[in-house]
Amino acid sequence: MILSSREMALLEHRIEEVEVDEAAARRSLRDQIAHLERALVSVATSAHPRLELPRITARGGFAGPRLLSLGDLEAVRDDLAGKAADLRAQRLHHADAQAEKRLLVERMLLDPGHYRWVRVSGEDIGEPGCKHWHVRPRLGIIGMLAGWWHVKVSSGCPLAWGPWRLPRPRTSSH
Question: I want to staple 143 with a disulfide (CB 3.0 to 4.6 A). Which of 36, 68, 96, 137 is the partner?
């Protein structure tokens, strides 16, 4: 087979294969995975009440230490990115619900008669503790009949009673 000069020139200037630096690619993917894991923890712990971290399962049914291929590392990275996006959406949903409850507390304080018997907890608005806002009648049944409603703010968690007293050991007085 005789090649023309044009075909010979094409063969000489052929595109060389790109060599992939696998160590650098692994390092980059591991850095991306570490960044996404930190982001997952940061998103989960930045909300109150805390969001549950998603479970990360082993791929291919293998558990324990092993060397992942570049494709497996990319799949882990993509899975973590999807879970981080889901957790951010969940946190956003919680933040919106808490903002609605805070607005409800403000409205309760402005017009308690319109929100009779409504109760909002501190956890509903994203605050730790046992605090509650509860619209109740002032002076009991008389306040109900007269339309005297007010917001009662609880004082928080009940007091701790201290350590339990252990029964004294019986001593024989022989």
Answer: 137
Per-residue pLDDT tens digits for 145-169: 888 999 999 876 766 555 555 556 6
Cα–Cα distance, 33 to 81 (Å, whole number): 9
The angle, 0 to 180 degrees and rounded to 10, between the axes of the packed helices 70-110 and 22-45 is: 20
Model pLDDT for residues 2-32, shown as the tens digit of each residue: 767 777 666 665 545 446 688 888 899 999 9
CA distance 30 to 10: 40
Task: Please state the pTM of the whole predicted model.
Answer: 0.63
Helix runs in the chain, H state only: 5-12, 22-45, 70-110, 141-146
**Where do the domains of the chain lie?**
27-50+70-153
Residues of the chain by 3-state class (helix, strand, coil), percent to 5: 50, 10, 40
Two structure tokens written together for 147: 């339309």
Q: How far, in Å, CA of 149 to CA of 136, rounded?
A: 6
